[in-house]
Amino acid sequence: MNIVLIGFRGAGKTALAKILAEKLNIELYTIDKIIEQKENKKIREIVAEKGWDYFRHLESQTIEELSDKTNVIIDTGGGIIENQSNIDNLKKNGYIIYVQSNLKDIKQRILNDPDRPKLNPTFDAEDDLNVTYNRRVPLYEEFSDFRVNTSTTSLEECAEQIINFLGI
Fold first, then answer.
1. What's the chain's average pLDDT?
2. Which residues, 6 or more positions from 145, have their beta carbon under 8 angstroms from its beta carbon?
3. What is the distance between the alpha carbons of residues 42 and 115, in angstroms, rounded to a whole number?
4. pLDDT at 31
5. Distances in Å between the alpha carbon of 11 and those of 25, 57, 65, 73, 99?
6. Which residues pair with 6 in a beta bridge?
């Protein structure tokens, strides 16, 4: 059974995934990193050159490829939950863990990060985060099997909570 981390950008999914992979000594797949390697470009470059639809297509392809793996950690991008086939693929062989964080903390972590392209080009950076966060949170909640909160709990403790939940 896989451990699949979902949550908004900047919530701490990748850092938490690394801790879990180390603690459990299992393989980690970070979807954004796989896409960057396949395309030989940063996410921001892919989006700038070919758009979000193209990136989302690559993301879904990668999820489909990873969904047949077993006993791995899959660190997803924040937008995967907006495509039902992604959720279906990830759920068929995995527990979905929602890595929560409050919007204030997310803004502090990513608002000035040039490697994170805006999701809605017509909004300024802060409105972009507000609108997208509010749209996605109900989806994260709906599709998750378990939740941890990086705004109120250390990454180490979040990892322990996940391990306890899974009975590993």
1. 92
2. 95, 96, 97
3. 8
4. 97
5. 23, 23, 25, 17, 6
6. 98
27-51 tens-digit pLDDT: 999 999 999 999 999 998 999 999 9
- Angle at CA of residue 47, ends 81 and 21, nearest 5°: 50
CATH 3.40.50.300 for domain 2-163: yes
> CA torsion 149→153→157→160, rounded to 10°?
-20
Q: State the Cα–Cα distance between residues 157 and 147, nearest whole angstrom.
A: 12
Instruction: Evaluate whether 63 touches 81 at the Cβ level (below 8 Å).
Output: no
Torsion of CA 136, 158, 28, 112, to 10 degrees: 50
